[in-house]
Write a structure and sequence with these properties.
Layout lengths: L1 E2 L4 H5 L11 E10 L3 H12 L4 E4 L15 E2 L7 H7 L2 H20 L11 E5 L2 H16 L5 E3 L1 H8 L6 E5 L3 E2 L2 H15 L2 E3 L6 E5 L2 E6 L2 E10 L10 H5 L2 E9 L5 H4 L8 E4 L5 E5 L5 E6 L7 H15 L10 E9 L6 E6 L2 E5 L6 H15 L21 H21 L1
Parallel strand pairs: 1-17, 2-3, 2-12, 3-9, 5-14, 12-19
Antiparallel strand pairs: 4-8, 5-7, 6-7, 10-11, 11-12, 13-16, 13-17, 14-15, 15-16, 18-19
Helix pairs in contact: 2-7, 2-11, 3-4, 4-11, 10-12
């Protein structure tokens, strides 16, 4: 089956902490809009600092991209390290290099039950071009002291269990989590620290109110001195400009049933998460239950779900012929926010109102990190200059609609051709 829910993650995550819709008039020093990684991290860090914080989420905790992604906890961005420094700064690269450590620390400190596997990731090259790109990426990271390692074909085969690759870049800083469980765990930790969380509470209006702001909701209103907007690509009115400033890249995943232990241990035996260097990439990983999860670019809509499933089944046979015919039991998809220069955006919407969005497929570690930074910013512990992003003008991406159409049609066409070869 395919699902508009978080699919497998909804089946295997611990229950979300009890929350209710906002009712009546609520006041807080800081309001957070959005119950994904950025918003939850902000709420947790604010509550731990003794700040009165209320978070409102339009649906359920982790109901957007935070509960639908692959679960790769990565360092850096898709950009090569030197390109990231050239486009932004060394400060941004250094901060993102350390971001996975923040995730692992939060998991350990709050005992988050989220299948955390800090065993690294493997970026795999199926061809000479991919190997050359990984060789250069390894050189650039190693020049900055990162402990990444370029593996040859034999070592890649041993680490992935597949003969499909010529090389792989191993990053020990990274790893995998159960993404929805991580979001729910952050929510529980934030509640435990004193934050107030309201679900099924969409914001329908936003206005100034005295020296602060009023957020209007179906059941009441939220008054706050400062506001963090953490809605990213799921933004709607009155914050739809955050959504319009980026192009949505759809990404799907399919999961097998739990594999027999002897078979499961032939696939990524050390527990790393993996993806390849193709333009339309393939990601693959195991979960704690022994399922194999494979994903790629595309939307599981009425017109393209079947062809993406056919592609995924073929890709599994290509990667792991020892699996034999596999019926993929669950499929789900979510949205990745992309920006024209592949960098996140810091926006100041009004005095004391900020957002960071556009993680370009690297939302777990950066979202956690930037949520913590926005928390510090909103309580005046730091200033905007301490955040390694330059505040950007809020303007729509003029090529958004054409990019989004290309993303969906291009991935469908490639997977259709691939499934028939």
């Amino acid at each position: 089956m395919t699902s508009d829910s978080p699919g497998l993650w909804a089946e295997t995550a611990p229950p979300a902490p009890p929350t209710e819709a906002l009712s009546g008039e609520v006041s807080a020093q800081v309001a957070v809009v959005g119950g994904g990684y950025t918003g939850l991290s902000a709420a947790l860090h604010l509550a731990q600092a003794g700040v009165s914080v209320a978070l409102v989420e339009a649906a359920e905790i982790g109901g957007g991209g935070s509960g639908r992604n692959v679960g790769l906890v990565n360092a850096g961005l898709w950009l090569m390290p030197e390109e990231l420094v050239a486009r932004a700064s060394a400060r941004l690269l250094d901060a993102l290099a350390e971001a996975p450590a923040l995730v692992w620390d939060l998991v350990a400190r709050h005992k988050l039950d989220c299948e955390a596997m800090p065993y690294g990731t493997l970026h795999c090259a199926p061809d000479a071009r991919g190997k050359a790109a990984l060789t250069e990426r390894a050189r650039q990271w190693q020049a900055r002291g990162a402990g990444v390692e370029l593996l040859d074909a034999a070592r890649t085969r041993a680490r992935t269990g597949s003969r499909a690759f010529r090389a792989a870049l191993y990053d020990p800083r990274a790893g995998t989590i159960q993404p929805l469980a991580y979001a729910r765990g952050l929510a529980a930790a934030a509640l435990g620290a004193g934050a107030r969380l309201f679900t099924n509470s969409p914001v329908s209006g936003f206005s100034e109110a005295g020296s602060g702001y009023r957020l209007s909701l179906p059941g009441g209103s939220l008054l706050a001195e400062r506001v963090i907007l953490a809605t990213n690509t799921y933004s709607t009115e009155p914050f739809n400009r955050i959504r319009d400033a980026q192009s949505v890249l759809p990404y799907f995943n399919f999961a097998t049933a739990p594999l027999p232990e002897d078979l499961s241990q032939t696939i990524l035996p050390r527990g790393e998460g993996a993806w390849d260097t193709r333009k339309i990439l393939t990601s693959f990983r195991r979960d704690a239950g022994g399922r194999l999860i494979i994903g790629s670019v595309g939307q599981l809509g009425r017109g393209d779900a079947a062809l993406h499933r056919a592609w995924a089944e073929r890709a599994l046979r290509r990667l792991y012929p020892q699996l034999g015919p596999q019926r993929l039991r669950l499929g789900w998809w979510g949205r990745i926010g992309t920006t024209p220069d592949a960098l996140p955006r810091l926006h100041r919407h009004a005095p004391g109102v900020w957002s960071i969005s556009g993680y370009n497929g690297r939302g777990i570690a950066p979202g956690t990190l930037f949520g913590a930074m926005l928390a510090d910013l909103s309580r005046a512990e730091i200033t905007e200059t301490d955040i390694p992003l330059t505040p950007a003008q809020m303007s729509p991406d003029p090529l958004r609609l054409s990019r989004e159409a290309l993303f969906r049609a291009g991935s469908a066409a490639l997977h259709l051709v691939s499934a028939r070869i």
